[in-house]
Amino acid sequence: MNRLAIAFLAAQLATTATFAADTATTTTIPVDSSAFVFSPGNWTGDDGRSGKLFRQTWNPNAYFRVSWETKNSKPSAKLLLDTSSFTAKFGPPHLAYSVDGVWTGKVPCAKEIVLENLAGAGKHTLTVVLYTSTQVERWGSPGKSGLNVLRVTGLQTDADATPVPDAPAPKWALIVGDSITEGCGAGPLAPYSHLLGEALRTQGYEYGVSACGWSGWLNRGDNPPDKDVPAYYVVSKSTDGVNGEHDDQASRWNKIDGNNHSLLDSKGHLSAYGQENQEPALIVINYGTNDALWRSNPLDTSASMVQALAALRKSAPEARIVMLVPFGQYFVKEIKAAVATHQQNHPGDTKVSVIDLGRGVAKTLAAPKNLLGGLHPNDLGHANFAAQIIPQVMSLLAADAKR
How many angstroms separate the CA atoms of 387 and 8, rounded? Predict the structure, then answer.
């Protein structure tokens, strides 16, 4: 064997040895570990809403957390993602993540993300929030996942690390809306929906944000011309703003994504993770802006509200349902009338409310060069609106707890 061949073989052996040494110094916590907790109502996997290989979501503000312990005084860890579906058409979604309470923002999804701010032996907790993604190809279709999704496959840690079991809080909130609830125009962790959810977490709740730009009661979501996300609760041919023909196939109120993943359990109730007895304790809906801007049929829109309230009550019998008047004051009368109609049809239902921040908010957002943004509020706008919404929601929940 000549010297060139010997050198080449030696290099290969050295590379193999280095690779073996590297793999021996790490371990991977899989997504089906009890150390992982995923935001309710947001995630699916390789086996329905669970599985061993991955969890994925298309919902901005969806989150997960995972905890582990290590004896290594200089620990390291990598978040592992499957990015194989990404294309140049939309680019990668962006994340924000916290390591032991220290946040890093606007992180593009990649196959491996080395965690910053990880230091010292002991217990560590990673929390990841899907910050933003392009509003295209997120929903999917029967038998086919959306392409523009966050897909998590595990967390790579030091070899001596051990997962720390965790469990989701028993109560959870479902926060539904359009691009404003999604957080378009706001920075990481800034949307009112995230701030409301985090306030609820201090009271023992998990929360799932199910929001999509362009969407409404009747208006399909995501960017034209595709608009591949169904409208929330499709009703047509209404002559009175109450009755009409509901198209469940064209609606997303009871679905997680387009790939046959239902948000309901075997009893037809909304479910956090697919099992029975996991109904939300709170549902907040902020819809109407796009129905007004895209001129949805007013009678059909009103009927959609009335029928959606009935469907939500049937699928979450004990939930507090809050209809949030859009910040631009769209469909104010119709929203309040829909709640009044629901209460007339269900006189025993005392857990449906309206939160209206008032005309001043709409006037502010419409004013040129105002501090709070425009149609899409900026970070200050979201913070101010959250400061008004959170105490009202907490007051309603406190009153329910006393019943």
Answer: 66
